[in-house]
């Protein structure tokens, strides 16, 4: 019984850590990006590289905690519900992978923003197209 209570406590702590990491990551990245056109976003990112990198590191820590949560849920459910345990583990792994893929795109904005600023922030360039795809994603609509 004591081992089961420890697992439940670890699950609760992991969920709190995921929420805290989410707010730290989004707060840091939102403070860097600000609002405006993609040109403004690229300039802001190039001026605040450390915040973007810290945001990415915290987010990668969040993915590790999500994987730990998946394993803990698997341990909790495996005795009674083996299929639910596998589905839960799979869902947590998919969530962690999707966060990592999103952070790869954000990480790709760092050199792109530096090159954009070095080029003199041209009005119409491929930097803005690539920045829009990396920042907003393929399926989001940009209101510029």
Describe this structure in words.
By secondary structure, the protein is mainly α. The protein has one domain. The chain contains five helices and no strands. Helix 4 runs antiparallel to helix 5. The longest helix has 37 residues. The relative contact order is 0.13.
Summary keywords:
144 residues; mainly alpha; 83% helix; transmembrane; transmembrane helix; membrane
Q: What low-confidence regions span 5 or more consecutive residues with pLDDT below 50? A: none
Q: Give, in order, the helices and strands.
A: HHHHH
Q: Give the % helix.
A: over 70%
Total E-strand runs: 0
Q: Give the termini distance in whole angstroms.
A: 58 Å
- Work out the count of structural domains: 1
Strand residue content: under 5%
Structural class: mainly alpha
- Mean pLDDT figure: 85
What coarse outline follows from CA principal-axis ratios? elongated
């Amino acid at each position: 019984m004591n081992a089961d209570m420890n697992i439940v406590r670890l699950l609760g702590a992991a969920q709190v850590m995921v929420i805290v990491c989410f707010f730290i990551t989004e707060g840091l990245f939102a403070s860097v990006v600000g609002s405006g056109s993609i040109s403004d976003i690229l300039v802001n990112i190039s001026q605040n590289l450390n915040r973007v990198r810290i945001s990415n590191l915290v987010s990668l820590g969040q993915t590790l905690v999500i994987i730990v949560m998946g394993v803990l849920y698997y341990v909790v459910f495996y005795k009674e519900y083996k299929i639910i345990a596998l589905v839960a583990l799979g869902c947590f792994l998919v969530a962690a992978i999707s966060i990592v893929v999103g952070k790869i795109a954000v990480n790709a904005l760092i050199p792109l923003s530096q090159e954009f600023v070095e080029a003199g922030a041209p009005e119409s360039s491929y930097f803005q197209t690539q920045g829009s795809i990396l920042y907003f994603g393929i399926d989001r609509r940009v209101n510029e």
